[in-house]
Specification:
Blueprint lengths: L3 H15 L5 H9 L5 H11 L4 H32 L10 H21 L6 H10 L4 H23 L8
Length: about 170
């Protein structure tokens, strides 16, 4: 059975390779907006597609951050709309939400933002942070730092600048 994420990645790689040079970073940025691909996956797609690593990393990170920014702003406004109308009913907390809240109380916004990509896409982490009332500016700051760090790290590994001795 085909893996939808790997099919999507291969599709983006083919699309990048078939585009004129000026449009290739746009495709990489669009790939960066996709959950589970994100900035680091998009940078890899761009590099494999023949884009200079710095351009691929920038495009992937920008695409990822723009998507996260939209999600944070929408989630923050939705939270304000719901809480200002008194729409906060006492609902049982889901296991997933409880797990997120434990991680948030343990690591805070910086920790959840920096470690979150190891478990779930930045878009999901950002939405959860904003929905729980973390100020949008704080979420965007730490998500931006996380996106830049992870995209840079993966780009450096892919290009061979960072290697691991086995």
């Amino acid at each position: 059975m085909a893996n939808p994420v790997s099919d999507l990645i291969l599709g983006f790689q083919d699309l990048v390779a078939g585009m004129p040079d000026l449009l290739q970073p746009v495709i990489v940025a669009l790939a960066g907006a996709v959950p589970f691909i994100e900035g680091e996956g998009a940078a890899a797609i761009g590099i494999v597609g023949g884009i200079h690593p710095v351009v691929a990393a920038l495009a992937g990170a920008i695409g990822n951050f723009v998507c996260v920014a939209v999600i944070v702003l929408v989630s923050s406004r939705a939270r304000v709309a719901v809480t200002s109308r008194g729409g906060r009913a006492d609902k049982p907390v889901s296991a997933r939400r409880e797990k997120f809240q434990k991680a948030y109380h343990r690591y805070g916004t910086p920790g959840v933002s920096l470690l979150g990509p190891l478990l779930i896409p930045t878009q999901f982490t950002a939405a959860a942070l904003a929905a729980t009332g973390v100020p949008a500016r704080r979420v965007l700051l730490w998500q931006g730092i996380a996106i830049v760090l992870w995209t840079t790290l993966i780009t450096l590994i892919i290009t061979g600048i960072i290697t691991f001795a086995v």
